[in-house]
Automatic annotation (TrEMBL):
One of its GO terms (molecular function) is 3'(2'),5'-bisphosphate nucleotidase activity. This is 3'(2'),5-bisphosphonucleoside 3'(2')-phosphohydrolase. It comes from Sphingorhabdus rigui. It comes from the Bacteria. Keywords: Hydrolase, Magnesium, Metal-binding. InterPro entries: CysQ/Inositol_MonoPase, Inositol_monoP_metal-BS, Inositol_monophosphatase-like.
Length: 250
């Protein structure tokens, strides 16, 4: 594989290539359900970690599908990847799953690519587009299996339509693509779930933060991230206030 000097170009290439690999596996392997999901995760992960070891041998790495070590904590540059975000959706033949490839620099999610392989799309930090204006009735993406009570309460207060969707990456990219306006998550995630989506959303000019308004910081020893908000900037203050109000009531 030829060395790709540009970090965003590398992230986009790897996300797209990993997505193509697992799409082909889904179409040709004969595997189904959990067996297919596990195989897709492992195939994409092996491809990504080998490619990053070759392309950026001095950088750190954090992957959902690889054993974590302390080695990355001393690195300024750390690649954070989710080989298949939304394994369940992938294995069910749905389109709302993603491949995440991001580079955090000194904890900030500055470079990233999110592939939506079933839609043949890659959203990346160096190619932002103008997001269409929000409709009168706002739209909030939530988990299709377990919508967070806080998100439902905020949606009700806003009069927003709930749009059930699979993976975190697919939800975030729905906002980036103008198909939704708010992605509020309070059910807990990990760094690989949000690093690439947050990088892309920020590059598109969207608001990204914790639900208390504080920044999202990556490459931490504890990779658990309790919550996040991705939305249009004009809605951020209102949504954050409603989250706080909901927390005080509960």
């Amino acid at each position: 594989m030829t060395i790709i000097a540009d970090d965003t170009e590398l992230a986009a290439y790897l996300a797209k290539a990993a997505g193509a690999l697992v799409l082909e596996m889904r179409d040709t392997s004969g595997l189904v359900a959990k067996e297919l999901g596990n195989a897709g995760d492992q195939t994409a992960n092996q491809f990504l970690i080998r490619a990053l070891a070759e392309q950026r041998p001095d950088d750190g790495l954090l992957s959902e599908e690889s054993k974590d070590t302390d080695a990355r904590l001393s690195k300024s540059r750390v690649w954070i990847i989710d080989p298949v975000d939304g394994t369940r959706e992938y294995s069910e033949g749905r389109s709302d799953w993603a491949v995440h490839v991001a580079l955090a620099i000194d904890g900030a999610p500055v470079i990233g690519a999110v592939a939506l392989p079933a839609l043949d799309l890659v959203l990346r930090t160096d190619q932002p587009a103008i997001i269409p204006p929000a409709p009168v009735k706002l739209r909030m993406v939530v988990s299709r299996t377990r919508p967070a009570p806080e998100a439902v309460a905020v949606a009700e207060a806003l009069g927003a339509e709930l749009i059930p969707m699979g993976s975190a990456g697919a939800k975030a990219m729905a906002v980036v693509r103008g198909e939704a306006d708010i992605y509020l998550h309070t059910g807990g995630q990990y760094e690989w779930d949000s690093c690439a989506p947050v990088a892309v959303a920020a590059a598109y000019g969207l608001h990204v933060s914790r639900v208390d308004g504080s920044p999202l910081v990556y490459n931490q020893r504890d990779v658990y991230m309790p919550d996040l908000l991705i939305c249009r900037k004009e809605h951020a203050a209102h949504v954050l206030a409603l989250v706080q109000l909901s927390a005080e009531k509960n």
